[in-house]
Design brief:
It contains 8 helices and 2 strands; from the N terminus they run E-E-H-H-H-H-H-H-H-H. A two-stranded antiparallel sheet has the order 1-2. The radius of gyration is 13 Å and the shape is globular. It is mainly alpha-helical and about 110 residues long. The longest helix has 13 residues.
Length: about 110
């Protein structure tokens, strides 16, 4: 949980052999839906809110940039990513979500 020491989540090798944690990203997205206080912290100061999670710098950057296409390629759930535009996380709107997720995969457009 945020505020507790970061633990290695389920790490796997992503594209290019880099270590990543789909679990930590899923946890962040789940918390942003289920925990209004965490969501408020994420909306006001994303960098600070994400400190307690076992995210790589690359994952934090992808989240901050709202790069849902890359997150999807890494194996992040589209279902969980939908909380980003629902709550305006990382500046995401429904329109930007649709544009970004379908960048190269029209079948993923929502």
């Amino acid at each position: 949980l945020p505020g507790q020491p970061a633990r290695l989540g389920l790490r796997r090798l992503g594209p290019g052999g880099r270590k990543m944690s789909v679990y930590a990203i899923h946890k962040l997205l789940w918390l942003s839906e289920e925990d209004p206080e965490f969501r408020a912290r994420l909306q006001s100061d994303p960098g600070e809110a994400m400190k307690g999670l076992a995210l790589t710098a690359e994952e934090v950057q992808a989240l901050k940039n709202g790069d849902v296409h890359t997150l999807h390629q890494w194996g992040v759930s589209n279902f969980l990513m939908r909380v980003m535009p629902m709550h305006g996380l990382f500046g995401m709107t429904n329109e930007t979500y649709r544009e970004r997720i379908g960048k190269e995969s029209p079948r993923l457009q929502v």
